[in-house]
């Protein structure tokens, strides 16, 4: 489903150049759960943003099924993200003036669903992440881990074929985190969703089929997890 | 240094009442490192906010040395926070239009230090959290874990006697997280700083002298860590 070739993303800071991605070659098959790990600042969020069409390469190519994202026009990236990708942001990016269920329902609104359809789907998803009784709270009325779970539920709302999760359990206790990871794993196995998950938690990474290790904007190694 | 008595914090949501803190009795001695753990939504951030004078109790008392924060006038809370507390927020709360060093230097500006003094102190602190080469980046030009480390450095800038850290390693890889925890531990042991740290990471909690377990707005148990 995903293929990057010699992918680079460079930032110009005055006279200095920051090589956030310094040549990434990566292939991810449809319906696999891949964990992306590495030191803070090694380029994980940048890689996720480029694969999700939120950022453009400086050079190299990034293919998601038959679409090359680097050359695609903006309109194509917008519809790609809206229809096919569910993104869980490292800083959540919830709408502060909207209630939890409205935040979750946002992708469905963009997809043109009716209000009752959206409300029902949003409440079901909030239930699945343990927030059934928080549907009407706004982000400032939620704990950090609750906000994170709203962001997770939102990413699943539109039944995406590709989920890009940037540290989805960073603010969750071990039990709540495990529930989220089992939910994500189930989506991969039962609905053939492709999941690329950045994490600093090696226990979370152990739920994946493969673990990609990054350092200084490059892939250092890839582990395949054998399950008996 | 810290004593809470029958501390409650209640939120009114239409007809429902959320008991974020449901009667908390806690004592923390000066110069100790206390970890606060518990499920997502159990009241940890709320407790930290009340102890730091960022939020008022609904009932009960919270004493930090000789100041009872529930009854103190706003002006006293402002000077308390400015002069004595370093706060690391769960969502960082950096100023987006300011560079990393300016964000770190903000408490020193509020304390009236000169610009060169502020710049030097800020750069030294950024060095200590591994961001010496990122001093001029703005938050949007930093990774999640780098933003978290800027928030940590800022909390230390004014040599606070009390540090309140809300999940300070949640976005850090294990090596960077360990460096931060050792730095915090050193401040407690060498400078008699009092540190109350919320965390979901039991490895991070193991750096503390005591671990306070919360559930549903109450303290469930307190573990004391014996070090040989
Ligand atoms: N302004 C508010 N209005 C209503 N409820 C609130 C408000 N702020 C917090 N809450 C509720 O209070 C409870 C405690 O929140 P708190 O942020 O202290 O949890 P926490 O232990 O820090 O959780 P986490 O580990 O997820 O960060 C949560 O259930 C939350 O939904
Ligand atoms: N807009 C920008 N301008 C300059 N440098 C940037 C910009 N955005 C990111 N960077 C730099 O690119 C590098 C990679 O950032 P990225 O956010 O991908 O790291 P990460 O692996 O997600 O880190 P973390 O684990 O801390 O979230 C970092 O060193 C960061 O400082
Ligand atoms: Mg990141
Ligand atoms: Mg919290």
β-strand percent of chain A reads 25-35%
What's the average pLDDT of chain A?
A: 96
Number of strands of chain A: 10
- The value of Rg of chain A in angstroms is 17 Å
The count of helical stretches of chain A stands at: 7
Sheet/helix structural class of chain A: alpha/beta
The most extensive interface between chains reads:
A-B, 32 and 32 residues
Q: Ranges of chain A with pLDDT <50 over ≥5 residues?
A: none
Helix content of chain A: 25-40%
C-alpha termini separation of chain A: 25 Å
Task: Provide the succession of SSEs of chain A.
Answer: EEEHEEHEHHHEHEHEE
> What profile does the largest beta sheet of chain A have?
6 strands, mixed
Short synopsis of the structure:
2 copies of one chain form a homodimer. Chain A is an alpha/beta fold and 228 residues long.
Describe this structure in words.
The structure is a homodimer of 228-residue chains. Chain A is an alpha/beta fold. Helices cover 35% and strands 29% of the residues of chain A. Chain A has 7 helices and 10 strands. A 6-stranded mixed sheet of chain A has the order 6-7-8-3-9-10. Chain A has a 4-stranded antiparallel sheet with strand order 2-1-4-5, with helices on one face. In chain A, strand 1 and strand 2 form a beta hairpin. In chain A, helix 4 packs across helix 5. The radius of gyration of chain A is 17 Å and the shape is globular. The complex binds adenosine-5'-triphosphate (2 copies) and magnesium ion (2 copies).
């Amino acid at each position: 489903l995903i293929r990057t070739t010699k992918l680079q993303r460079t930032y110009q800071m005055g006279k200095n150049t920051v090589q956030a991605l310094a040549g990434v070659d990566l292939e991810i098959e449809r319906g696999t759960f891949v964990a992306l790990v590495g030191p803070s600042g090694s380029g994980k969020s940048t890689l996720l943003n480029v694969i999700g069409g939120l950022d453009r390469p400086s050079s190299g190519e990034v293919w998601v099924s038959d679409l090359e994202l680097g050359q695609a026009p903006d309109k194509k990236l917008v519809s790609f993200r809206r229809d096919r990708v569910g993104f869980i942001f490292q800083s959540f990016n919830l709408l502060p003036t909207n209630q939890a269920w409205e935040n979750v329902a946002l992708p469905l609104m963009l997809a043109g669903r009716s209000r009752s359809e959206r409300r029902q789907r949003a409440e079901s998803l909030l239930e699945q992440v343990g927030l059934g009784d928080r549907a009407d709270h706004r982000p400032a009325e939620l704990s950090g881990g609750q906000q994170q779970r709203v962001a997770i539920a939102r990413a699943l709302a539109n039944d995406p074929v590709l989920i890009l999760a940037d540290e989805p359990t960073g603010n969750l206790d071990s039990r709540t985190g495990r529930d989220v990871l089992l939910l994500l794993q189930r989506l991969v196995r039962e609905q053939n969703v492709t999941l690329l998950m950045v994490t600093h938690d090696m226990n979370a990474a152990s739920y994946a089929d493969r673990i990609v290790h990054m350092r200084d904007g490059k892939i250092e190694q890839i582990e395949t997890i054998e399950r008996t």
